[in-house]
Sequence to fold (446 residues):
Amino acid sequence: MSDQISPLSSSSQDEVSLIDIWLTMVKHQKIFWWLSALTIFCGFLFSVLRPTLYTVSSMIKIGSLIQDGVYSHIENPATVKAKLEQALGPSILAEIKPNQSQIEFSFSVPKNSNLVFIQSQVRNEDVSAAISLQKDLIARLIKDHDQILNVHRLKIEAQSVNAVEQLRLLNDERLQLPAKTALQADIQNAKSELNRLTDPVILAQKKKDMDIQHEIEKQKLDSLKGEEIKLGQISATVEVAKNLLVRQIAELKNQIEQSAELSGTIAKTDSGNPQTLMLLLITNNELGQNRNRLAALEERLLVTLENDKLELQNAMEINRRMQSHQANIITRMEYTVKVDEIENRLKKAGQVIEVAKAEARLSELEALHEQKLADIQLEISGYQAKFKDMVSTQAITPPLRSQTPTSLSMTGTMMISALLGVCLGIVGIFSQAFIENARTARTSGA
Fold:
């Protein structure tokens, strides 16, 4: 048989046939059977001596709430897992009895979920303890999350109460009435002023008063013009009187000269004649009267008439100034009427704007009030929605024992042991063949 195996161990052989492999396995079949039997026996002992383990598992759903307008979990699942692993889990395990010290927890969080799985691998006699511990662990986590929810709930309740109070104040007409009344009064005043500016009776009366005043001023101007005409007539009369006085003075002077010549002629004649003396006396008397009359006429011409002329000139100058002043008054009145018409139109336009502004302020106030009401009602609805969307942490699946053991059954263990024994037997056969070939090669080389 060694002659048949030598081709397998020769270093010059390039290929190994299936027959050579089979012959090698047959040659060392004892190693194969011993290793296989030993492995199967060890698997049997392991399955017999190994305790039966069950899985106690539960599933927790982390509660949710709305915070800052964003839907979120009470705590981040990773934070919950860390809290269970580092705080709650170790604290519960520290409180268990010594005979239950082999109970442990494992935690897992599926990706993008708010679920936390709790598992414990325990013996059958520790299943009840594991279930109790998991219930206690879940209760502590729920209690911790309920405290967080209560704080958030109290905050929302306080905000909701404040919003309801604001809504009550906004709906209270007594509080809203003063501002509305003030604006309505402004609107009424503005409309009253606009009505006054557009009232045809008032406007007609005002125009009538202005027309009457204008007519009065025109009559005054006409009266001054009439006085000017009268003064002109008086001035013409004074000129006529002056000319008349000048002629009378000239005639008197002529008469005085004639009387003086006559008196001189009479004086040269016989002065003893009584008739001559009488004539001389009469002539001298007439001459004296004419001279007195001449003096009176000259005084009237040079003094009285000049004074009258000055008075007339002053009166005419005063009359002209008064006419000019009266014309200015009439012009100003006409200008004032036009200005008043423009100002009245501007005032009416301004008052229309004031009415529109007051009404706009009232509309704005009402719109702001309605907007505030809508905002508060929306805010209250948001708080109610937050209350509804506030979900507590809860155990979706309570702690339960698996129906079947988590460890392999005896049959499975024996099958794995048999497979492992076959593999070890084959490895042992080829290991032994390799060792023999190595020895043969070393002997041949020596």
